[in-house]
């Protein structure tokens, strides 16, 4: 899942706060961490699709968020006192965006191929990057992405299932919101405390939906085991890897790497779910990936030129 792209708005900054990555270590080290995080997210999403027949899309979301929240709360042990009303408002908004993004995305992944779902979802962060940059060249990147979406739809989203496509686009809008509040939460809370608290909020918001859809199926030990695997692969592990990577990797480079997620998702869908891609689908994903990378690079160049 593209949850990990929360660093996109930070393309205007850097891991050490001074516009540069920390020195030392092999340059491929942090890049490998980011790629590993992306692989973990998308292969975790593929496992989640396998779990859906057992617990339903909303049940899987609940398992993922609840179990990830428990792990993060145990590891981070965030402080509950000493935060302002604005701090808590930011965490609540972050958690709500996280919950909405996941529920919409898994509804999409239950209806259309994983690669197509992530390709449509990534349009949210791409639109955010274009708006933040406010540069004319981003019209080119937006047009390139639009061309990819038209190619992916084959001239009409009925080929994909229009409901699934709508869920994916909705998830993209929530992803853009997630990115904004992820950055604000990171500035207001130390370490990963804000993330842990927001994950708990998201888990509580998703819980009623998961219970209504799956009921006592959520308590089956094998289902819980698979849900824990999804939580670790799609939330806990990638967040940890990205945190380590961002200590030595410039944020713009990180954001460009995150733009590869649709391609990783398509690969995971092919290997685990046997979702074959047509030549047109592969070309569409390539166009959206290129547009995302171009938009991020343009934003970074605009900031460095100021």
Describe this structure in words.
With 306 residues, the chain is mainly alpha-helical. The protein has helices at 28-76, 85-109, 114-121, 123-133, 137-153, 162-188, 193-214, 221-245, 251-258, 261-273, 279-304. Helices cover 75% and strands 0% of the residues. Helix 1 (28-76) packs across helix 8 and helix 4 crosses helix 6 (162-188). The chain is globular, with a radius of gyration of 18 Å.
Blueprint of the fold:
Elements: H1 28-76, H2 85-109, H3 114-121, H4 123-133, H5 137-153, H6 162-188, H7 193-214, H8 221-245, H9 251-258, H10 261-273, H11 279-304
Q: Which range does the strand content fall in?
A: under 5%
Q: pLDDT average, as an integer?
A: 78
What is the 3D shape?
A: globular
Helix content: over 70%
User: Based on helices, strands and strand pairing, what is the structural class?
Assistant: mainly alpha
Number of strands: 0
Radius of gyration: 18 Å
- Helix segment tally: 11
Question: What is the H/E order?
Answer: HHHHHHHHHHH
Gap from first CA to last CA: 33 Å
Unreliable runs, pLDDT <50, ≥5 residues? Answer: 1-27
- Biggest β-sheet: count, sense, barrel? none
Looking at this protein, list some descriptive labels.
11 helices; mainly alpha; 306 residues
Question: What is the structure about, briefly put?
Answer:
This protein is mainly alpha-helical and 306 residues long.
């Amino acid at each position: 899942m593209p949850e990990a792209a929360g660093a996109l708005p930070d393309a205007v900054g850097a891991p050490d706060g001074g516009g540069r990555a920390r020195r030392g270590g092999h340059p491929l080290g942090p890049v490998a961490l980011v790629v590993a995080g992306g692989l973990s997210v998308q292969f975790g999403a593929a496992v989640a699709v396998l779990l859906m027949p057992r617990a339903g899309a909303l049940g899987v979301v609940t398992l993922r968020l609840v179990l990830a929240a428990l792990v993060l709360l145990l590891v981070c042990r965030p402080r509950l006192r000493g935060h302002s009303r604005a701090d808590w408002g930011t965490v609540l908004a972050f958690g709500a965006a996280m919950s909405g993004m996941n529920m919409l995305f898994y509804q999409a992944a239950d209806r259309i191929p994983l690669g197509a779902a992530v390709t449509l979802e990534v349009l949210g962060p791409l639109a955010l990057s274009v708006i933040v940059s406010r540069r004319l060249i981003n019209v080119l990147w937006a047009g390139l992405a639009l061309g990819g979406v038209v190619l992916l739809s084959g001239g009409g989203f009925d080929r994909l299932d229009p409901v699934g496509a709508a869920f994916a686009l909705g998830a993209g809008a929530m992803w853009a919101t997630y990115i904004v509040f992820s950055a604000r939460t990171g500035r207001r809370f130390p370490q990963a405390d804000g993330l842990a608290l927001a994950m708990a909020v998201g888990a509580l918001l998703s819980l009623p939906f998961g219970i209504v859809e799956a009921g006592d199926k959520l308590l089956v030990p094998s289902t819980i085991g698979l849900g824990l695997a999804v939580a670790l692969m799609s939330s806990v592990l990638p967040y940890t890897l990205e945190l380590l990577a961002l200590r030595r990797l410039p944020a713009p480079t990180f954001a460009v790497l995150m733009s590869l997620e649709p391609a990783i998702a398509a690969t995971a869908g092919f290997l685990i779910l046997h979702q074959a891609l047509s030549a047109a689908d592969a070309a569409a994903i390539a166009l959206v990936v290129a547009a995302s990378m171009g938009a991020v690079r343009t934003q970074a160049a605009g900031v460095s030129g100021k």
